[in-house]
Amino acid sequence: MEQLQAVAEANKFQAVAFQRFGWTDGVYYSSWGPIIPGKKNHFEGPADLWRSIAQNNTQSRIAGRFDSNERPAELAIAEILDEKGPVEALADYISLSLRAMDISVEEIAEHYHEQLVNHMAAGRVDAERSADTLSKTLYAHVHSFFLHLGAARDYLAALVACRVSLDPAKTDSMAKLVDKLQQERLPDDALLNLLFSSENIAAHAHKKGKYSTAGWIKEVTDIRNELIHRRPYGSRFVERWGCAIPSQENAGLFRYYRPMRLNASAEHDVFDVLHRHYARCADLFYRAAKASGYNTAMMHITDKDVISLDTENATKPDD
Question: What are residue 222's phi and psi, to 5 degrees?
C-alpha cells in the first residue's frame, strides 16, 4: 500500500471511484461509488443516498395500503407504486441520473484502460496518435455524462422549487429556478441555502435584485451546452485521436491521453475534465442529500414489507 501511494503521489494519480462488482446467478454486475472530496468513507455515494430518500418516501406513502390478506394484482401494485408525490419522484429521478453518470464514467475509464493496453502492446508509447472504431463509443459516453449531469442538476432545481412553494412542473430547470428568485423575497430553505453557500447561485451582475447561476454549476453548464446543443464531442479533428504518453518512463508507467478542445485555444484531456466535474457533482449532491432533511437511511425490508412473492418449485436431482 505504501508503494502504491508513493507511485500515485509521484505521478499525481487521482482516485476516481470504488468499484463494486460480482456475479449473481452467473450474471455479472458492477457499480461505482465516486470518491467524494474530503470524505473518508465512500460506501454510500450520492446516487445511493437519493435512492434511499425516494424509497423511504415510498415506504411511508404506501404504509398500510397492503395490510389485507388478499393478494393484490401485479398491475394494481405497479399503479400504487407509481403514484409518486413530487419529492419521492424527483429524488428517484436524481438518483437514476447520478447512477447513469457513474456508468458513463466507468465506461470511459474502461475505454482508457483498453486503449492504453493497445498502445503499449503495439509499442506506440511516444505520443503517436491513433484511433479505432471504439472512438464512437467514447463520444457516446462523454455525451451521456453531460446529458445526465444536466438532468440531475435540473431535477434538483425542481425539488428546490417544490420545497419553496413553486410549481416543479413549471420550474423544471436550474435556469428557471434562478430566474424566479428575487432578493427581496428569498425563501429560507436548506437546499437553496446550500446552492448559495457553495457559490453555485449568486447575485446577477447586471440585473438588480435578481440572481444567476455561478461557480461550478455555471462552468459545467457552459460545457454541457456546447457539447449537447452546439456540437458533439469528437467533432473537432484533434478530438478524434488518442495517444500514450510517459508518466514515469523509467518505471514503465504510461497514461492514455485523449484531447478535448473547449474553445479555440484550450486543450485538455477529456477524462481529466470529466473527473473534475464528476467529483464536484458528487460532492454537491452528497451534501444536498444530507442537508435536505429527508431520511437517507438505507431501506430495511422485513416480512411485513413483502407484498407479493413468487417462488419457483425446485426439485432435487436424483441421487
Answer: -65, -40
Q: How far apart are CA 271 and CA 129, in angstroms?
A: 17
Concatenate the DSSP letters of all residues of 96-117 into one string: HHHHHHHHHHHHHHHHHHHHHH
Residues 285, 191: Cα–Cα separation, whole Å: 10
Separation CA 283–CA 275 (nearest Å): 12
Q: Above 70 in pLDDT, residue 172? A: yes
Which pLDDT score is estimated for 303? 61
Q: How far apart, in Å, are the Cα atoms of 266 and each of 43, 213, 230, 262, 270?
A: 36, 23, 17, 6, 12
CA 14 to each of CA 91, 268, 281, 298: distance values in angstroms, whole numbers, following the listed order: 30, 16, 16, 29
Distance CA 249, CA 159 (A): 50
Task: Return the C-alpha cell found at 134.
Answer: 471504439
Terminal-to-terminal C-alpha distance of the chain: 49
- Reply yes or no on whether the pLDDT at 29 is more than 90: no
Reported as a single tens digit per residue, the pLDDT across 107-153 is 999 999 999 999 999 989 888 898 888 899 999 999 999 999 999 99
Which grid coordinates are listed for 262? Answer: 473547449
pTM of the model: 0.88
